[in-house]
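Summary for the steering committee. The consortium agreed at its last meeting that each partner would contribute one worked example illustrating the joint modelling workflow. Our contribution is presented below. We chose a case with several input lines so that the handling of multiple components could be demonstrated. No manual editing was applied between input and output; the record is shown as generated.
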Amino acid sequence: MEQRITLITLGVTDLALSKAFYEALGWRGQEVQETVFFQAGGLGLVLWSREKLARDCGLAPGTPGGFGGIVLAHNVRSDTEVDELLAAADLAGGTVTKPAVFNEIGFYSGVFTDPDGHAWEVAHNPGLPLAEDGTVTLPDFGAA
Amino acid sequence: MEQRITLITLGVTDLALSKAFYEALGWRGQEVQETVFFQAGGLGLVLWSREKLARDCGLAPGTPGGFGGIVLAHNVRSDTEVDELLAAADLAGGTVTKPAVFNEIGFYSGVFTDPDGHAWEVAHNPGLPLAEDGTVTLPDFGAA
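What follows is the complete predicted structure of the assembly.
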């Protein structure tokens, strides 16, 4: 298995609402067959019916809205950008579940959830610098 | 907000078990401060305590194991590779929740879950070709 991810699909309960939320944050995608595809760097971020997604995976859909066990991080280039994005997410109908603070490691971050409760950490971490194209290369932590 | 993702963090209940699972599939990462970091293309895939992850996001951890509402897809270059990866996931202690089939769209895919129930679709989709470096560029679906 190569170390890469092709698509991240977020299960949603109201496609139009979710699409509008991400569009309000500046994302632009394509809607086709009740699915929204956003290009996200070298992979795709997809919005699709949570129930169909679960069934397509052979899983019970369960209850939406709670913590799903996965967090996406979107790192930015300044503390100000962290504040701006959290404010924009709030304005767009998201929920800021953790206002930005300097965490134990020393960098500035906060968290918002989208209309379905999917969590996004927004962080400015100088220890994990972004390349010009927005990709990251993990530092050598000097660990095993 | 730029259309990109910096990190995907999977909340896990047993870090050593989860790390061993991904290592059995060929992933190599770094463990530092009870966190495992894998380089995954231009982003990082991270394993961290599910409970700490939830609390760090200002969220209640909830119950692990059920469908979390997010599915990661790992596309490969042949139908045979789909079968091989699903078999490897099963052997490594994952659960094949959907044996590979040709889906309605016409491509071959199946799904496994990792030890914490995080779902991975494994697909060979000629309509979404992989670049040599494993990235994808979404086609023009001719949609809005």
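Chain B has two domains: 1-62, 65-131. Chain B has a mean pLDDT of 95.
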